[in-house]
Structures are given as C-alpha cells and as structure tokens.
TrEMBL record:
It comes from the Bacteria. PANTHER family: ALCOHOL DEHYDROGENASE YQHD. Residues 9-179 form the Alcohol dehydrogenase iron-type/glycerol dehydrogenase GldA domain. SUPFAM superfamilies: Dehydroquinate synthase-like (SSF56796). Transmembrane segments: none annotated. Gene3D superfamilies: 3.40.50.1970, Dehydroquinate synthase-like - alpha domain (1.20.1090.10). InterPro entries: ADH_Fe/GldA, ADH_Fe_C, BDH-like. One of its GO terms (molecular function) is butanol dehydrogenase (NAD+) activity. This is Butanol dehydrogenase. The keyword Cell membrane does not apply. The lineage of its organism: Bacteria, Bacillati, Bacillota, Clostridia, Lachnospirales.
Length: 395
C-alpha cells in the first residue's frame, strides 16, 4: 500500500427534504449574497428552483440566478459567471444540478477571485488557484461525484478541448443529497450515472500496478456490487427510494478518493472519453465510458490477468480458472458488458452517434497524448498508437 493523504471536508446533508434546509445552512456560515447556478429548465419545471429561492428568502439571503449549463460544461459560460460574481459582489456559489453544473460552479469559484489569471491555465497545468469563492451544492443526478470531490472538468470550445484538474479549492463546503430529487431522471441518464459511478472506482481498482491494498479493494468491490444491484432496481422502478439512495451515496464515495486509497492509478478510460465527448459534445460522458471500457479492458488485461480475474470472481461472480486466469478475466469483462447492455448502455462507439467517425480517432489520440508528448501510465502504458488501437477496438 502506498502512502496517502485523505481529507474530505465537505459537510453532507443526506435524505428526504434536506434541500429545504439550504437557506438555514448558508445563513449558518454567514454568507450574504449567493449565485444560484443551474442548468436548463428541469429545475424550474420541477419546482426545485422555487423551493431553493424560497428558502433563501426566508433567511434574508440575497441571490442572483445564473442558468444555462449544458452537459460537458463550457469555459465560456463559466467566464460569464465569473464576471457576474464580481459585478454583483457574490460571496457564495450554490450549484443546483448534476455534475456539469457543479463543475461549472467550481470553475467560476476559481476564476472569480483570480481575475489576473486566464482560468484555462489551471486546466493545462500552467497555474493553480490558491483561493476561490466558497461553494456548495444541491445534487439532482447521481453520477459524477463532484459534490464531494476535488476534481473539475471543463470544455474549452476553442479547439474542443475537454480537460480536468484537481484542487483543494474544489471541495464544496457542503453537499445536500436528497435521493428524491433523482426520481424524475430518465432511464438513459440514470444508466449513464450508474456507469460513471462504477468507472470512478473501476479505474482506481484497475488503473495501476500497486499491490497489497486488500481493505481498499474490498471497499471498492462492495461499492461496485451495490451500484450494480441498485442500478438494476432503478432501471425497473425509478422511484425506489432505497436504490436511488444507494446510487447517490455511492456516487460521492466513488470519487472522493476512498475507493483508491493507497493505490497509484491513472484513469485511462476517462482520459480517452474526454477527447470523445470534447469532440462530440452530444455524447453523454457515462455513455462514452461504457462504450470504451470493456474494449479497453480486453486490450490491457493480458498485462495483469490476476487483477482482472479478482474483479471477475469477487464482483462479477465468475468461477476462478486457476490454470488460465486470463479466461476468468475475460469472462468477467463479458459479464460487465452484459450488465451495461441490461441497463441500455452502449458498449461500442458505433452505438453512440452517427457522427462518430473512425477518421477522428487519430485526432482524439493526438489531443489525448498532448500532440504525442504524453503517455498514460497504467497496467499497460498507452501512447498515441495504443490510444488509437483502443478507439478502433471499441468501434
């Protein structure tokens, strides 16, 4: 087990009706003027936005509404938010929505207090924020784990580059998690969310060569099993509170570093998918991950078949073949692929969108490899050519 530092300072309020406490919670911290950041019309149609603003009004807290976030949130909108925060004297950002809204809010928080720095420099590792506006969230989609994580992913429309970076400034002050707010999420987005949750743990579990992490492994395996069970229930019964609650809590635990403690890893599939949905913004992140993951697994598993076999036996319930562990590993990958298909998730790039073209694979690999200057470490190192191979295998 490697050395590690674990710190998740986000306060979590979990359960029914917790979103109605938001005004009281913000007042406890003494904030005076809030930017309420959200996406499209769903929070308005559902009445959630009104409930949030009513709670703020009851506590005498001023607020400014700022909507418009789309899947794969953009730098241009975040920059608008930064300027609005400065003009209005905002001292706190409240994100109401899914991971895209939360990531947009984090970007706004970083940029508002650092007007002299181009915020894109944070994403290309040329600068790092040492201060940011405090922020919190009300989650409406179980998926990204951004509600408690230190990550933030943004798309720069100038070149369609999708990049992320980690920072202590990204840890929200609080996260309000009411599973009831996810009842209306459609089957496709719920499936995408389940995939994203699983990938955050699978990529930690399979993303490196670290040995001897038995406790972390068991935590990861338990989370994966729970998500698969809950995902199957919600696919048939969208308003099953307990299953929705499992997915929501798993989303937070899967990406707040818990399921990878003591392990060195690189999220290779996430890196590959960022180029996919960066080039094709219509592609949902979770769908892109499910379309890539099993092909990636088959491409790299020969380098460490026992690791994949362990996953196959403990999570996918495959009987161990001790003479040929690779067969066990491949059967586990097959069963995972069958699970994705059972919740109507794509398992090939060709299933995603008619616009996905094989000739773009080299473009995506060029971007992912930083023009051929970067390789992705892991069970099998991926350079530019290997990235192209995975894209083609997944097609």
């Amino acid at each position: 087990m490697n050395n590690f530092e674990y710190c998740v300072p986000t306060r979590v309020l979990f359960g029914r009706d917790t979103h109605k406490q938001v005004g009281t919670v913000i007042k406890e911290y003494g904030f005076k003027k809030v930017l309420v950041h959200y996406g499209g019309g769903s929070v308005k149609k559902s009445g959630l936005l009104d409930q949030v603003t009513d709670s703020l009004k009851e506590q005498g807290i001023e607020f400014v509404l700022f909507g418009g976030v789309k899947p794969n949130p953009t730098l241009s909108l975040a920059k608008e938010g930064m300027e609005l925060c400065r003009q209005e004297g905002i001292d706190f950002i409240l994100a109401v929505g899914g991971g895209s809204v939360l990531d947009s809010a984090k970007c706004i928080a970083d940029g508002t207090l650092n007007p002299e720095i181009d915020p894109w420099k944070y994403f290309i590792k040329e600068a790092s924020p040492d201060k940011a506006l405090p922020h919190g969230n009300i989650l409406t989609l179980s998926a990204s784990g951004s509600e408690t994580s230190l990550s933030c992913v943004i798309t720069n429309e100038d070149g369609n580059y999708k990049r992320g970076f980690n920072s202590k400034t990204h840890r929200p002050l609080f996260a309000i998690l009411n599973p009831e707010l996810t009842f209306s999420v459609n089957k496709f987005q719920t499936g995408c969310g389940s995939v994203d949750i699983m990938m955050h743990t699978l990529e930690r579990y399979l993303g490196g060569n670290t040995k001897d992490t038995p406790l972390t492994d068991r935590i990861a395996e338990g989370l994966l099993t729970s998500v698969m069970e809950a995902g199957a229930i919600v696919d048939k019964d969208p308003k099953n509170y307990e299953a929705r609650a499992t997915l929501m809590w798993a989303g937070s635990l899967s990406h707040n570093d818990l399921t990878g403690l003591g392990r060195e890893f690189m999220m290779q599939v996430h890196q590959l998918e960022h180029e996919l949905s960066g080039l094709y913004p219509c592609i949902a992140h979770g769908a892109g991950l499910s379309a890539l993951f099993c092909s990636w697994s088959r491409y790299v598993c020969e380098k460490d078949p026992m690791r994949f076999a362990q996953l196959a036996v403990r999570v996918m319930k495959v009987e161990m073949d001790f003479e040929e562990p690779l067969k066990t590993a491949l059967k586990g990958i097959d069963r995972l692929e069958e699970f994705f298909q059972s919740i109507k998730m794509p398992v090939r790039l060709s299933e995603l969108d008619d616009a996905v073209r094989e000739e773009d694979f080299e473009v995506m690999a060029e971007k992912c490899s930083f023009n051929g200057t970067r390789s992705l470490p892991g069970i099998r190192t991926l350079g530019k050519q290997e990235m192209i191979d995975v894209y083609r295998m997944a097609y």
